[in-house]
Specification:
- The chain has a five-stranded antiparallel sheet, with helices on one face.
- The relative contact order is 0.21.
- It contains three helices and five strands.
- Helix 1 runs antiparallel to helix 2 and helix 2 runs antiparallel to helix 3.
- Helix content is 31%, strand content 31%.
- Strand 4 and strand 5 form a beta hairpin.
- The chain has 134 residues and is α+β, with helices and mostly antiparallel strands.
Length: 134
């Protein structure tokens, strides 16, 4: 085993991508790769990939043109916390929490949290392996 293969894994990875649907695949790929490093199951990783996609899809319509999605991935053994944040065009921007995308997101994640401030909205998605420590 090399020094790069050692567990447990912990830390934070940050990624910034343009607010363009074409770049959501990059965030899904990062989530899947880091989910594997956190020892999530194959099903958990697929749920996480879809949850990240849904979260970002909810944020994209609110984003200022030519801005970025700032994604933070907090790694821990058995869990991954992903926060996706954007700068909005209006101070009180919000999205539909009664729609299909929100329903799918909350069904796939262990926890979902939304924070907003002046011209900024973030969705935090937590995915835990079943039986993993909280």
């Amino acid at each position: 085993m090399s020094e790069f293969d050692q567990s447990p894994v912990a830390g934070t990875v940050e990624v910034r991508v343009p607010t363009d649907v074409a770049f959501l695949a990059t965030l899904r790929l990062v989530a899947a790769s880091l989910g594997a490093r956190c020892e999530l199951t194959v099903d958990d990783i697929e749920d996480l990939r879809l949850a990240v996609d849904e979260a970002c899809s909810l944020l994209l319509p609110l984003a200022v043109a030519d801005s970025v999605i700032e994604a933070s991935f907090e790694l821990a053994p058995g869990s991954l916390v992903v926060t996706a944040a954007i700068t909005t065009g209006t101070p009180a921007a919000t999205f539909d929490r009664g729609g299909f995308a929100w329903t799918v997101l909350t069904a796939l994640a262990s926890e979902v949290d939304v924070t907003s401030g002046e011209r900024r909205v973030a969705i935090t998605v937590t995915k835990r392996r079943e039986g993993a420590a909280r």
